Amino acid sequence: LTATFRNMSLKRIKRGDRRGTESVMEEKFTILYIAEFKLGGADEIPFTVRTMSLPLVVIVHGNQEASAMATILWDNAFADPNRAGFTVPDRVPWNDLTVALNNKFNQIGAIAMSDENLQYLAEKAFPNLPSNPNYDQLQISWSQFNKDTLPQKTFTFWEWFHGIYDLLKRHLKELWNDNLIVGFLGKLTAQEALLSCPQDGTFLLRFSDGELGGISIAWIATHPETHTRQVWHINPFIAKDFGIRSLAERVKDFEHLTILYPNRTKAEAFGKFYERNTDQTQRNVRMGYVEAVLINKVNAPVIAAPMSIDNPQTPARPDTHDSYPLSPSLSTSFVCSPPPPSIGSQSIVTDDGRGGRDGPQLSDLLSDLPPAMAIDEDELADFITRFTQDS
């Protein structure tokens, strides 16, 4: 017997008394389904069947979602089938949790995490253990998973992992599945890996330790003043950044990034993910516009402080909880493409409704610009002033 409910909605809820430090994101509910029907011919036999849904959590704001999902994951993965009520174990084997975390990746079509990835997750979850412990024998508690904050951070292990999971689901799944993202890798380990590479411009992508849902680019380069090879890090990108410009396009913008660790050329690795907005470009041409695109650039590293092998923990940005080198700062510029020939026949219409070919044409003014140049604010203001005065 199956049934499909397409338009269910919650009208009201009565919350119970919570115990101790239990939050609303840990309060579990269930939906009780009851159906009555009859089977048989003349002597129909009535049946009443009932079943309960899996536990659910009711939240009132999006910022409660991560903790609510932790409650659901823990319950679905570790509840005893014959349990009483909603009881779940307070501690579970670490290996069992890694299976549940990999299942989260599978649910969104992402490939499973590697053994190296899981090793790094274990180091995050158990930060105070001696070196090289046997993680197969360890157990993790619910508090360690989603109540206790990580050392020197303001978020829990699950909140950190969920931020990465959400970033992958929304923006990076294809890059992850193509093995273009190393992902779960410590900053010092990333530095050691890049220093072993013979070619400057070798880079890798790793998830941020301190920026929730962040991913950073690390690369090896020779310092222009000291002439020593050093590792640099770009401040992490987050989901809202990729809503503006994809990670592949941002990697493309950075000309100093040439080899994806360990030995794939950037074009070979990311080329198929570069955007090709030909339809939008043609629409802009028909409407008489010159297309402008956003590009990223890294300011000269001569003024920056790279990571050193002796002190991998460099000053933190004031607005985050991560430790980043005061590495080449990131800025965004507009780039104007050269106007297509068809724009020369377009009239310029001013704000008072005048039009025609008497005044200067947009294509005439743009001809003064180099074919593809970065325009800063002062240059753009000067260009607009010239256009207004000449008109």
Overall pLDDT metric: 77
* CA-atom Rg in angstroms: 28 Å
Helix content: 25-40%
Strand line-up across the major sheet: 7-6-5-8-9
Estimate what percentage of residues fall within beta strands. 15-25%
Task: Please provide the count of β strands.
Answer: 12
Q: How far is the N terminus from the C terminus? A: 75 Å
Determine the number of helices (DSSP H or I, runs of at least 4 residues): 12
Give me the strand/helix succession. EEHEHHEHHHEEEHHEEHHEEHEH
Main beta-sheet strand count, sense and barrel state? 5 strands, mixed
- Apparent shape: globular
- Strand pairing plus helix content: what structural class? alpha+beta
Outline the low-pLDDT stretches.
Answer: 302-327, 336-375
Overview of this protein structure:
There is one protein chain. The protein has 391 residues and is α+β, with helices and mostly antiparallel strands. It has helices at residues 65-78, 94-107, 115-125, 142-146, 157-177, 187-195, 239-242, 247-253, 266-270, 278-286, 362-366, 377-390; strands spanning 32-39, 45-52, 91-93, 139-141, 202-207, 215-222, 229-233, 259-260, 264-265, 292-298, 330-336, 373-375. The chain has a five-stranded mixed sheet. Strands 10-11-12 form a three-stranded antiparallel sheet. Strand 8 (259-260) and strand 9 form a beta hairpin. The termini are far apart. Residues 302-327 and 336-375 have low confidence and may be disordered.
